[in-house]
Structure formats: C-alpha cells, structure tokens
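#struct-help
A.M.: can someone run this one for me? Single chain, 191 residues.
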Amino acid sequence: MSLQGVRVALTASRERSEAISFLLEDEGAQLLHLPVLELLPPIDPRPFAAVVEQLQRYPWILLSSLEAVTALWEGARVAGTLKRLDEVGLIATDGEVARTLVCLGQPARLALGTTAVLELPAQAPELIVFDTPGAASALHRDRRAWLEGAVRVAGSAATAEELSQLGTPAHTVARAGSLGLLDAAQAAWKR
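D.P.: on it. Structure tokens below:
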C-alpha cells in the first residue's frame, strides 16, 4: 500500500531517523519531523572533561539520550574514572536509556518521562510514527487533538503501552528496525 501524499510525523530529527525517513519518502509520504530534543556537541569540551574527571563530586547525572550515555562512558573511559560511576545516581529520561544503562552494568536509580516542549506546525499529520517512549506523552500534552485524530504507529511495546495509557491506543505496533516501522505504517494506513 502506497503512502503517496500522506502527511506522516516522526518524533525524531531527520538525522536520528534517517532510515525510516528514506523508506517513508520512497513510498510517497510527506514527512514532518517533530524532534523531542536536539543534540548538539558542546562548544567548549573542557567543562565536560572536568565533569568526567571529577565524577565523585556529582550525586546525580541525568542522561537524556543514548548519545549522552555514550559521551559519558567514553569521557569517563578516557579520564580513567569509569569505576567512579558506581558512586553516582544515574537518571534515565526514557526506557531505552534505562535499558542501555542496565546493559552497561550501571542501572539508573531514577527513570523519567519526556518533558520537552514541541514546536509544532499548524497542519496536523494524518499518521504519526512514535519511535521512542515519551514522545506520545509530549505530543499528548502539546497537541492532544493530533494524537487523537491521527493513525498511530508504536515503534515498540513500551510505546504502545504509553499510547494505551493516554487513551489513544496504537493502531499497530512495529517490529524492530526501520523496515518494521515502514511495514507497520503501511498496515495501519490501510485500515
């Protein structure tokens, strides 16, 4: 089933959702990227280097993305302070970050939901692909009518659960990977 002319919103930047963006555009979809957060490298890397050298000074560190986890681990590895992470309370902003911390042997002490404010265009999308947990809650807070009026594709079981809890269940849940998201979007649009 073609998605020709269908407005599809992705809850990630073009850079973070390159593969699914390409596949959806190839099917004729008109994409709207609604990134929940934008990740930029620091202008001056020295403050971060000082943080990872003195991890024991910080009772809590909030990790808002997989990139943040990678940067912290790589910075601590280079600084020789990986063992000091045992002394820090790590806070994960979503399930993916929390699962990654568990895999690294440093489970988060707290897991938070997404609280970013979205800048949204006026025209509502017809289909929304939720690729990360927390994105549905952010959209529910900022544009509930969009969430209720669009065909909803959950990128994972956790995202499907979040949508259900918001009273707007997913029309379909994708299997893993970009092709899984594309298949799910096409299947949901057929309904």
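A.M.: thanks! The chain has a mean pLDDT of 81.
D.P.: also worth noting: The first helix runs from residue 18 to 26.
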